[in-house]
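Example record used in the benchmark description.
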Amino acid sequence: MQWDRKPGQALAVLALTVLTAACSGGSPDTAAPNVASLAGAGSTPAASASAAVASRPRERLDTTPEEYEQMLKPFNKCVREHGAKPKSEWNRKTIRADAEKLEAVSRICEPLYMPLPPWEKDPANPEAKDFARDVVKCLKEKGVKYVAVGSNGLDIELGGANNHAQSITKGMDLMPECERQVAAARK
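Model output (structure tokens):
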């Protein structure tokens, strides 16, 4: 290697050489020890968790109850494998114990297998709060009297402080239509 070039070029060549040796494996004494990868035995827990989150199913605004049950199968399997019961299998006599077990196991299974919410309602979506505000506006335009965006900026609260039954019923009936309208307008 010639060192009569500019110092910046020499540094760049040296850095590239070291990086190439580390990435390609190089000789055992020059390779980086225990380099993590997304696949294989050397994966770090953070990389594995990121890959698991990326593979979680995502609900859609029009997901049917049957489709959602299909999405829950890996979560429910994980729950059973860790000694708890899914909510659908709880027994009235043991509901408190079942709930406690599920709460403990959910810390393990939820981040890996629980379906993600529709993108329009996902806290990770920077436009989710705008979506919620627009859905509330739509519901008000359709005659729902007591409706507001919840304190977290994402949830929609129906009925107000008085639990106005008509607003709750009408809001629940019109919510899917308003969500679809707002989503279509954003595309």
